[in-house]
Design brief:
The chain is 50% helix and 10% strand. The chain is of the alpha+beta class. The protein has one domain: Glutaredoxin (3-Layer(aba) Sandwich). The longest helix is centred in the N-terminal third of the chain and has 18 residues.
């Protein structure tokens, strides 16, 4: 059985799509998943990037694409009332609910649905309070231990080579994005599919760095 680390931030619509699609994408395979909520903004800062929603034309394209992808794959998705928003409260809530090292699928799903279903404000204090009551976290989301759990998960993701969300870590490889699910499946399936993936994986080694900005 293969182990997959699923790195996500609830602010990402692609994380919602990938979460919903993952069981179908990997149907018939033997695997287990650890859900690892991380702060996407920290990845952007580390790598010196802007988020998609911080670039006006890219922001519009992102919302168009995720709406189209959701419809194509039969995934329920409604954009929240405002985006981007501050996801810290939701991320800390997820880690506060971790009873066995990491948040489980139910907690992750409930928070993603809070954001990406219904079209309401994801960071509304009253809604966050109601969500907290529903999930009944084992720890105080405002505690130092929970804050440190989020920081540690984010730092570990960066150390593992994660640069965006959603990402899937398995066997030392990082697969980035909703559209990487077929590549992830090929890695897990093995055989000819894995051989083709291994060949593609080595492609960067043959390309020299050109100009730098």
């Amino acid at each position: 059985m293969k182990h997959i680390d699923f790195y996500l931030d609830f602010i990402s619509p692609y994380a919602h799509l990938a979460f919903e699609q993952l069981p179908r994408a990997l149907q018939g395979l033997s695997y287990e998943v650890t859900y690892r909520p991380i702060l996407f903004a920290a990845l952007l800062k580390h790598h010196g990037q802007l988020g998609p929603a911080e670039i006006a034309p890219k922001r519009d394209w992102t919302y168009r694409q995720v709406a189209w992808l959701a419809a194509q794959h039969g995934i329920a998705l409604q954009l929240p009332a405002a985006h981007p928003f501050n996801p810290i409260g939701l991320l800390r809530l997820a880690w506060a609910c971790a009873r066995q090292g990491a948040p489980n699928r139910y907690v992750t799903e409930t928070i993603l649905h809070h954001v990406w279903r219904g079209g309401e404000a994801a960071d509304d204090p009253a809604r966050l309070a109601a969500l907290t009551a529903t999930l009944a976290p084992a720890h105080d989301p405002a505690s130092d231990a929970v804050k440190q759990a989020l920081r540690s998960a984010t730092d570990e993701a960066i150390a593992a080579g994660v640069f965006g969300v959603p990402s899937f870590g398995v066997d030392g490889r990082v697969f980035w994005g909703f559209d990487a699910l077929p590549m992830l499946r090929a890695h897990l399936v093995g055989g000819a599919e894995r051989a083709a993936l291994d060949e593609a994986w080595s492609a960067p080694a043959g390309v020299a760095v050109g100009i730098r900005r």
